[in-house]
Design a protein that fits this description.
The protein is mainly alpha-helical. The chain has helices at 9-17, 19-24, 29-45, 49-60, 65-72, 76-94.
Length: 98
């Protein structure tokens, strides 16, 4: 969980968070690197263990919500709500760094 995969959905999540920067600045690699560092910290400090686990399965390993639900013996809606809450907590933590 310390490494964030930028090849799968995790890269899309970072891109969505930094979308406004891409539109306003052609070279924002330093900003994106700062966002990656802050995201790693936020995942470890702000999220619950369950949220960390689901984010890892969804973004880093590329599993679908249905696959995560089956693997963890949960309802798909529980996975969806947990991922949404995790994204909201991350955004609340990172909104001042964007």
């Amino acid at each position: 969980m310390n490494q964030i995969s930028l090849d799968a959905k995790g890269g899309q999540f970072l891109a969505d968070l930094a979308n406004w920067q891409r539109e306003s600045a052609p070279d924002n690699s330093a900003d994106l690197e700062r966002l990656r560092r802050n995201l790693r910290f936020a995942r470890q400090q702000v999220l619950t263990k369950r949220q960390q686990q689901m984010l890892e399965l969804y973004y880093d390993q590329g599993l679908t919500m249905g696959q995560i639900a089956a693997k963890l013996h949960l309802n798909r809606s529980t996975v969806c709500r947990t991922l949404q809450r995790a994204r909201e907590r991350l955004y609340a933590c990172l909104r001042y760094t964007l």
